[in-house]
Design goal:
By secondary structure, the chain is of the alpha/beta class. Helices cover 37% and strands 15% of the residues. The strands form 2 sheets. The protein has a 5-stranded parallel beta sheet, covered by helices on one side. The mean pLDDT is 96. Bound molecules: N-carbamoyl-L-aspartate. The site of N-carbamoyl-L-aspartate (NCD) has 11 residues, from helix 2 and helix 6.
Length: 306
């Protein structure tokens, strides 16, 4: 059974196909109104979420399907000590596809190995978040026209930020990509992402704690929240949380067509004064996420049917 746990589970050709389907959904929404009629998506969210869960659910409704939902560890049998494996086996009896978010790295893989229906990873701890990357890719494609030749700045919590890990993995497969990794020392990109992606494929990157130094070179700036829930102590979080706050004056040296992104939720990383700047793309990402999730649900249900 085909599941999507990591963005690398999808080939570049499949990403192209998903991007094309998402664009077709945008252009011809009526064509897809009943595409998933009588199908059920189960959203199992054991960690807080607004966008990801609602976007999966809106996606399924817009495809004419239905949704079964579990939110929070306290309302399901997980609170009684049920394992992820048993939950996945159980939900497979009710639904046609699962989207799961869980605080433990690897939980979505365990679910996929035990479910008899496709599982989509909606975020597993500090590991990865492939469908946020689908939203990010459609946004970059629509704003920049394509992926090759881009200089991408990633700023904030590169250690625990799972959206960062997935985006780097996805972008590493395009041509002439350059990364500028901006973070405090304590929140640097994990060495497994550096070794298994950046170094392995010889991708050029700069590591710095100074956002302004390389800002003029960036085509995309991906801001991220410091991931409070993954810290071991509150003191470190409080010390690091406001390291980078993007304000209009800091953008003076940036490109006029810079694409400013953020997976959201925003805490304090981007001043609201930037929201009306034409370069602000973070709410476009939200909408694009719904279209890409529609395309992904369609694809996985189609494959499961054969
Ligand atoms: C992200 C996540 O959950 O990893 N949010 C999202 O899904 N859009 C980013 C975050 O929580 O900071």
């Amino acid at each position: 059974m085909r599941s999507v746990i990591d963005i690398l589970d999808l080939s570049v050709e499949e990403l192209d196909e998903l991007l094309a389907v998402a664009q077709d959904i945008i252009d011809n929404p009526e064509k897809y109104q009943n595409a998933c009629a009588h199908k059920k998506l189960a959203t199992l969210f054991f960690e807080p979420s607004t966008r990801t869960r609602l976007s999966f659910e809106a996606a399924m409704y817009e495809l004419g399907g239905n949704v079964l939902s579990v939110t929070g560890g306290n309302t399901s049998s997980v609170a009684k000590g049920e394992s992820v494996a048993d939950t996945a086996k159980t939900v497979s009896c009710y639904a046609d596809i699962i989207a799961m978010r869980h605080p433990k790295e690897g939980a979505a893989l365990v679910a996929a190995n035990n479910a008899s229906i496709p599982v989509i990873n909606a975020g597993d701890g500090g590991h990865c978040h492939p469908t946020q990357t689908l939203a990010d890719l459609l946004t970059i494609k629509r704003e920049k026209g394509g992926f090759d030749g881009l200089t991408i700045g990633l700023c904030g919590d590169l250690k625990f930020g799972r959206t960062v890990h997935s985006l780097i993995n996805a972008m590493s497969r395009y041509r002439d990509i350059r990364f500028i990794l901006v973070s405090p020392e304590e929140l640097k990109l994990p060495s497994y992402v550096k070794n298994e992606t950046l170094k392995k494929y010889g991708l050029p990157y700069v590591q710095t704690n100074d956002l302004l130094e390389h800002l003029p070179e960036m085509d995309v700036l991906y801001m991220t929240r410091v991931q409070r829930e993954r810290f071991f102590n509150e003191e470190d979080y409080l010390r690091l949380k406001d390291t980078y706050v993007l304000t209009p004056d800091k953008l003076k040296t940036a490109k006029s067509d810079l694409c400013i992104m953020h997976p959201l939720p925003r805490v304090n990383e981007i001043s609201v004064a930037i929201d009306n700047d034409p370069r602000a793309c973070y709410f476009k990402q939200v909408l694009n996420g719904k279209y890409m999730r529609m395309a992904l649900i369609l694809k996985l249900l189609k494959e499961a049917a054969v």
